[in-house]
Amino acid sequence: MVEMESDLVIAGGGLSGVCCAITAARQGLKVILVQDRSVLGGNASSEVRLWVLGATSHMGNNNRWAREGGVIDEILVENTYRNPEGNPIIMDALLLDKVVSEPNISLLLNTSVYNAKKADADTITSLQAFCSQNQTAYELKAPLFCDASGDGVVGFLSGAAFRMGAESKDEFGELFAPTKEYGELLGHSLYFYSKDTGKPVTFVPPSFALDDITKIPKFKSFNAQEFGCRLWWIEYGGRMDTVHDTEKIKWELWKIVYGVWNYIKNSGSFPDASTLTLEWVGMIPGKRESRRFEGDYMLKQQDIIEQREHADAVAFGGWSVDLHPSDGVYTDLPGCNQWHSKGTYQIPYRCLYSKNIRNLFLAGRIISASHVAFGSSRVMATSAYVAQAAAMGAVLCKKYNCNPADLYRDNKIKELQKRLINAGQYIPGVAVNDEMDLVQKAVVSASSELVLTELTEDETPATLDLSMAQMIPVEAGALPAIVIHAYSQTSTVLKVEFRTCSKTGSYTPDNVVASFDLPIEPGRNCLQLNAGLVIDAAQYIFVLFHKNPLVKIARSAKRITGILSVFNTINPAVSNYGKQEPPEGIGMDSFEFWCPQRRPAGQNIAMKFSGALPGFSASNIKNGISRPAASPNAWVADFKDARPSIQLQWDAPVTIKTICLSFDTDFDHPMESVLMHHPENIMPFCVRNYSIFDDKGQKIAEKKGNYQSRNRIVLDEAIVTNGLTIRVEHPSPLTPAAIFEISCYS
Ligand SMILES: Cc1cc2nc3c(=O)[nH]c(=O)nc-3n(C[C@H](O)[C@H](O)[C@H](O)COP(=O)(O)OP(=O)(O)OC[C@H]3O[C@@H](n4cnc5c(N)ncnc54)[C@H](O)[C@@H]3O)c2cc1C
Prior knowledge:
Largest sheet: 7 strands, antiparallel
Structural class: alpha+beta
Bound molecules: flavin-adenine dinucleotide
Strand content: 25-35%
Low-confidence stretches: none
Mean pLDDT: 96
Helix content: 10-25%
């Protein structure tokens, strides 16, 4: 038995375990990460091949600027940079790279946790694990443990309170709680990849392949070109014990996969499949659901749909509440039942530790959430995000020599939130100004600030065959008057509205504040939109153009941080059919979807404003929010500024060792990790080149070719200075340079 000791032992190297380990290690904790497979990533690894998703929801709902921050953001940005084609093998290598680059992490691969030792009924002292490759048993000791194993192996072995199956409607008043008939557990799935060889290929099915394809009602809508996680509907096992029956479920899924492929290849219904071969079939199923553990709070449907606020919010979610029928492929029911909320929702810290095992953190899909809430919180970017919060909780537990629940009881949540935000975690509705951050005491000025009075008309006009809207930030007070240009060949009427969102911090344009019916004449029309309205708080308004295929609207090629166009599109992949219209009595809201388009589409609508739009001032770099929220929240330089720079000035000399910069890597871009090809591998808003100078004009740091959201610059030697100048280059002539946040530490 090899004994190892650390500050934190994490069981499970899925994305949750990985992001938890890296977050904790970077804060100085010694971490053991033990993973039973030979690669990291869990369901995101090449063994299962799911694309990582979270609140951005394939860009198919109303959650703007909602990609998760911190380590999961760094990984997705890096993967998009190295691997825009979404090759799962490259993603495996990236995750290994990230973990082995952290000297504080001891990684045990191919090593399975099988026992937990305890000091008393409530306290784990060590985990026992075995590596089948080197035939070595390990005893992993620590004061703190985190279960990120998906099935909750540590929680189960240590006697942590858990649930399996769904809660009744009555328990938490969740109107969407499923019936027993629909099913109380989501099943597993197995995927295959196919490949076009360019020549005819035959296929002889194995003996265990399903021979009667009509047993799968969906067989009539099979498509020979689909593979990988687009086959999410190949699901089975929700009526079984999804832990102990996993091998049985896998065999059934293999039977289904080979049966589906046999049908595609040999039924004669798919001539386009003649040159296709089976390139890969999953060897282990992707597991959706098994145990959910009980913390001091259980997230529930109302937290998500009503976007309830929690004083101990440490993360957010934003995937739809997404339940599946337990009969999986063997039912006529749709493969999923998804309902979105109007915006993202907070996840409280109390969901991230066991209520009865004192030193056990929970991360990933096993956090304390009802079955219905789990339907949303289970996706991987959200899972990883909560894991980062658990990691930071462990950091404070070490600092205060306490257990996870003590941080809540002893009012350490503000400190936890501050640390998380400093590490790049965005918590909706929570802004923290860190008194250790020297920038908070600096006077900030800039060579220029964007004066946005116009989105210039320099792109071909778009036909209004879809309703579209321009999101613009406005201050409390009078709404600006707006001029737009429309083109038509005939006379018609264009319906335009100003809308806002009824929920603070959300972006569902459900509140019409002004409406215009504008007569359009043949030719170019110059249209004045002046509502003469006063609004009470800074927010985004939607200047919304109703569909009218007779009209073209002038567009702008400029891409500006915090300025976005959205479209009333449909996206069936996330159950977006333009408008969400739930049946009565399931506790879900009715609203329209207004989503951005993926580049190269999604241009802004050209318009002129009676005054400059707010949200681009240099002081934003110290407002504690490092992404657009009620305003762009960034310093954005003016287009005309040839040498943009921002200056920090202190009354007295300060000692600086570390400088952190946050750039715009487009928090709307979901950066799906596999299968999806991305149009660019560097986000167009991101500052690529910058240099930093001290008060004597000496260059103390420089970066060329940046593509990451957060740059943390640790100087070789601390400097003493009265000021810093950060000189940046515009990313392109179409996009002015922007910085969300600057912080400096001694
Ligand atoms: C078919 C399917 C489709 C889905 N679609 C999506 C999607 O499109 N996008 C998305 O983001 N999410 C999706 N999900 C949900 C998501 O994949 C899971 O909820 C998510 O993987 C949970 O993350 P996790 O880290 O908790 O678990 P996992 O990703 O399962 O990681 C847990 C890790 O722990 C390891 N482990 C288990 N037991 C032990 C042990 N005893 N010792 C050591 N290690 C152990 C496992 O091998 C695994 O690597 C889907 C899930 C499935 C199954």
